[in-house]
Amino acid sequence: MADQIVITEKSSQANDVRAAVGSRYGVILPAEGHLFDLLQPEDVVPVWKRWSPILLRPEGLYGTRPAEGGNKAAKLKAIREALRTAKRVWLATDCDREGQLIGQEILEHYGYGGQVMRVMFTAQDSQTIRDAFGRAKPNAEYTRLYAAAVARRQADPDLQSVPYPHCDRDPGSRGAESHRRWPREDADLGHRVQARAGNPELRANRLF
């Protein structure tokens, strides 16, 4: 098995990287967007499946589970197997916070402990990609970008604009009193993401 692998965000990106650098940086394996879905509140605490006007928050961060659909399972399996022997991973997903999350959440989920380099490029022509690999930086330098993505995603269950009737009537019945869960300042969430990402500057930089 290869001791280096490249993880891209999608197959088209993998094709462009392969055309630019070949196998110089190892086997190129594409994800398919997010390969993990966030657990829903009722997956964490079953009673939360009931209608409620309160903000639902687990003790720690919401966990994740492998995503379904498309070829996600096969792509995740290929990456998981490659991580077993890889000593270095090149993250070549999109350069925004979502791209950071898509790549890094795979490594976090499997507890990868090898070297991780971050390849950042905004165009996918061969020269730009080659230059990006040449100036790749340790992934640790993008901790804040990852933490911002985690914080955004962890807020998803609270941002769902779904009515939560606080009454005994059927949710769809006429006249049911309804409430919505809206996000609020939650210092605990900031602390948990800060601990997860290992960045003491998050709250100071108002990422929450």
Q: Report on the biggest sheet.
A: 5 strands, mixed
Which outline best applies? globular
Structural class, by secondary structure, is: alpha/beta
Order of adjacent strands in the largest pleated sheet = 2-1-5-6-7
Q: N- to C-terminal separation?
A: 41 Å
Q: What name does CATH use for the topology of the domain at 4-142?
A: Rossmann fold
How does this structure look, described?
It is a single chain. With 208 residues, the protein is an alpha/beta fold. It has a domain at 4-142: Rossmann fold (3-Layer(aba) Sandwich). 37% of the residues lie in helices and 12% in strands. It has helices at residues 11-21, 41-44, 72-83, 97-109, 126-134, 143-154, 156-159, 187-197; strands at 4-8, 27-30, 36-38, 64-66, 88-92, 115-118, 137-138. The strands form two sheets. Strands 2-1-5-6-7 form a five-stranded mixed sheet. Strands 3-4 form a two-stranded antiparallel ribbon. Helix 1 crosses helix 5 (126-134) and helix 4 (97-109) packs across helix 6. The N and C termini lie far apart (41 Å).
